[in-house]
């Protein structure tokens, strides 16, 4: 199924000064006396109720290697890093990747259909998902199916160009999913959730030693979810299973192997979405339950991923890690696409496009890296280097149904009544492969006790061959890009930093003449301040950024056979971000962020479907008067977005906020009950204007979860 894209359009907004970002972290850092911070560090945090596994009850992480493979604190990392922890996911039932990223600073989730999503940050599409720091870009540029979060301990979001680790991609963000691993001793938990629209979910998580000496241990995670939805005829369901075994072969060598399985079944899933404007140019406004799916529509995906990991520590200073991953993702679907422009009075003007689609994507990846320390000029420095090889193969086929172009009068586009056709009108598809080879090296120089310089380089070669829907994908592109990051400590708790990275993103899109576009290139600059308070339990950050990108593929229209043609455009994105995460006071956890940006390209507004201003906050509080009670709320807000269609139509979604509420209570030492309410104000809004079709987000909904842990 070809990825459906539409032209982006280019804009600019004034920015607030850097002083706002600096004052957040610097002011907070200097306002706490050293004895106050020591007292806070000595306090023990109260336990929280968890659904799966044992974990730290915190909305931040003390350290992360997602930006450089060096295990650094967030303050020591010269780049913006957000962390969504297991505690936050459990508190607010963030059981899908879309829900997690919607609660992340500066990230937008573009739910263009019921079962397909794009993601953006800093004005550009996110195409890099990694797992424990290893991964390759999306095959389609988007994600099919609702990826579940049951198997992850936390999610790290590295914003900007992650030039050292990702090697290729947009200067948007890299998402690193940190898998659950076996814990010490026996631990188990389970949870049963009942929610709106007859939604039922069951979670289970067990970690256990497999040997008497504890050197071999395993962890098993499973989840099952099914139910209906706010949309007519749409009933999503999924099964998730994860198993990992960790064996300490020697005191210095550990072998880990694991497998992940997820199957998603979506009955009544939509291909495309609702028409957004009438023939008179005015915008449509349907009930939120409206769907264009047929009674026979389905969209199923299945993913199996196996990994093996070997780590060895040579001495206290040096270690090496190698990872081998194989992933196979299949999808099969029968879908009903509705196109055209309806008449406001009669509703006529919509037409049918039924299709059956099957795909198979196989990805193999090997990654090896080493980290250690070395002495130079009387000081101790850090060094990391590594290489990776990957291959991705895609085979897919579309079986187009009889009756394409059939008129859908009298509301039949929305009632599901279109009869299932035979899918033998014609076929088309893809068969291509990508191979990537890259190597990197980086050193973190200890220039002074308060000054650290991270300097590195990444070289990559990408070879593609084959074709997709009649368009050649054959190309060979390579480049070497540098990375620089400087961190200057202002005091024990506050640091300022600057980072610079160059951008290289191979492209296989073709222009109107059928020629493959050259790679997109550019530069990314970021300046910021970070604060670390209460012995690392609270992290603050403020950053400004400027990104210039050349020749990025942008949809420039479609052919008569619905194939998208592209053009290379230049653009510039500037903005700032503020974030706070962690323990604000004893028993009070919070994660909050504000992002603002402007995007210009060719002197026009760019990608106006992306909100220029965003805010989010998630917070929970353990009530001192009722120690077994936790209460919380989350809020997301974005300003208005729009999408120009031609010269006369401008689709709009006004600014809106969504409020969520939660409460949990310990019934016993091991059993708790929690209640969650989403979209509490029942705000109606579109999920995206990435395309000129869209659907409405879910209205007010809630869930109750009974949890048990051992």
Overall description:
There is one protein chain. The chain has 710 residues and is mainly beta. 5% of the residues lie in helices and 56% in strands. It contains four helices and 38 strands. The strands form six sheets. The chain has a 22-stranded antiparallel barrel. A four-stranded mixed β-sheet has the order 3-9-10-7. Mean pLDDT is 90; it is low at 2-55.
Mean pLDDT: 90
Give the overall form. globular
**What share of the residues lie within helices?**
under 10%
Give the strand tally: 38
* SS element count, helices: 4
Taking the sheet with the most strands, its summary is: 22 strands, antiparallel, barrel
Low-confidence stretches: 2-55
- Measured between the Cα atoms of the first and last residue, the distance is 46 Å
Question: What are the key terms here?
Answer:
mainly beta, 5% helix, disordered N terminus, 4 helices, 22-stranded antiparallel barrel, 710 residues, globular, 38 strands
